[in-house]
Amino acid sequence: MERGETRPPDKRRRRRRIILSVVAVLLIIILVAVVLGLTVGQNTRTLKTTFTERYDCEKLWGVFERAYVGLDPCEVPMEAYDPLMAAVPFKPECNRKIFWSKTKDVVHDFTEKRDCFYTVEETLLGSALNGLTWCGKEGSSETFTTGCPGWTDCANNTVRSFWNRVSAAFADGACGDVTVMLNGSIATPFHPASVFASIEVKRFNFPRVKRLNVVLVTQENFVTNCTNASLKDLQKELDQGMTYDCKEVSEAQIQDCSSNPEMPCGACW
């Protein structure tokens, strides 16, 4: 347009609509950014609240966060949690620790009802973080509870490395007789990629650990028994001098025993 000319009314209305549309888009972007910021902050506060309520220690939160905050969530080695393990050491306890692989529901149903054994998830530190998800991001000082890699997405993800490290510490504190529940309904109950095979059993050193009791949990149509080849591999992993025993026990028998407080735990298998 040349100087002195006036814009036709329809063009002025079109320009006004464009301006209003741009403003509306900017407001939406700002609103989304604020909501996301509040969500991240709320998620961080939720995880922190859960952690501190379960563990009742504000100082440990800082030790915990230093393991992963500001890091790529796929580049957190299990050693990053060493300071946390040092702050919350596992005391050695004989004959009461039970391990598991592919039998999570069975073993926890048993330990919830009977106090003769306990799992890593029932320790103070394990119970504080059981069922939670968290991670950091490069260049950020925040803790995130969404958008974190899953268990199998990368080997050194934040949550997997924590459980690998806490499982190692739990196994280091085992002594005397140690029990493990393995799944008799799968072809390879002692799988080399499992936490039990790759981390925990390697920490059972004789004479601190004198005996390993394998409870092979079976169902009606079980496919595995105590002669399974993978269980022979398990025996090869044990230190010389350590006693090994395996029993095939039905899940129904374990459930009946867990519901009967009058029955000694040793009679459950």
Mean model confidence by pLDDT: 85
User: Main β-sheet, in a few words?
Assistant: 5 strands, parallel
First CA to last CA: what distance?
A: 94 Å
Q: How many H/I helical runs?
A: 9
Q: What is the helix fraction of residues, given as a range?
A: 40-55%
Morphology call? globular
- How many DSSP-defined strands? 5
Q: How do the SSEs run, as a string of H and E?
A: HHHEEHHHEHEHEH
Category by helix and strand content: alpha/beta
Please state the CA-atom Rg, rounded to the nearest Å.
Answer: 27 Å
The poorly predicted ranges are: 1-41
Tell me the fraction of residues in β-strands, as a range.
5-15%
Your description of this structure?
- The protein has 269 residues and is an alpha/beta fold.
- The chain contains nine helices and five strands.
- The relative contact order is 0.12.
- Mean pLDDT is 85; it is low at 1-41.
Q: Short description, anyone?
A:
This protein has nine helices and five strands. The protein is an alpha/beta fold and 269 residues long.
